Amino acid sequence: MLERGMRVGEAKRKKEAAAVKAARAKRVLTAIEEVGIPIPTGMEYSDPRLVDAARTAGKLLDLAFDVMEKSNARANSVPVMTGLAMQLHGNLDYLLDHIVNNGGSPVSVGCHEGCAWCCHQNVEVSILEAILIAVETAHDERGTKFDERSQSLLSLSDRERAVQGEPCPFLDDRNKCSIYKVRPVACRSYLAPDPRQCESSFRLAKEGHESETQFYAEPQISGTAFKAVLDAMAFDFGYQHDLVDLVSTVATIRKDPSIIERWLSGEKVFEPKSHDSHFVQTT
Q1: What pLDDT digit, counting tens, does each position of 30-39 carry?
Q2: Side-chain half-sphere CA neighbours of 161 within 13 A
Q3: CB atoms near residue 236 (< 10 Å)
Q4: How confident is the model at residue 29 (pLDDT cuts 50, 70, 90)?
């Protein structure tokens, strides 16, 4: 009788744990929908890979709020918010490393240091990521060079930027990312199998032709879920949670740093990103 009771109790605990995991996944999937983050092309909410990524993101969202509650940290603190963003970036890096090196299906990544064909397009980021990058580069050479290099890019649409072929203002003279430590989720999860195909896509786009850039879907799905975490945090705190253009938003912050405090007070102060991208992915 006792053994049977133990089995029933264990089954009940497993059922409750599964319910908690499902609730977390639903929470993040709902956040994706509410915040307006697009899921990868051709994916459905029921796709197992998206659900798995959402479950992981749900745990991280709970962790973020737990950290703030235990430390009595204020949500309207820039250091707290940017610190959480960096912590979540670290978790995403760990997950992407697992996908590449230990995943169920082989992922051969062609990306390497100095390969920067993907660094010539507008990048969509969360507001919190733009703030993190602006704060990180506020008082050093990277910010000064950004000011010089970004002016010609500020008013360009995705297509115009691709045709112009200008690199990211944070790309240094050696084709290395000067903000690698705080680079956005979009950049972290953009993993391609063949740099030659990326170069071909870049050149076609620069000539004004439609181009297709192939990259792995699973890292993109994970990135989507992590974007949901960052923006769900802002959503829950009552902050503007639109996706924005990296270059124009960082430029706005550098021009008027006080705009961050206005964002933290609940004002809608940043221009949402418009979509006209011609880049697609493999699934």
Answers
A1: 655 554 445 5
A2: 27
A3: 14
A4: low
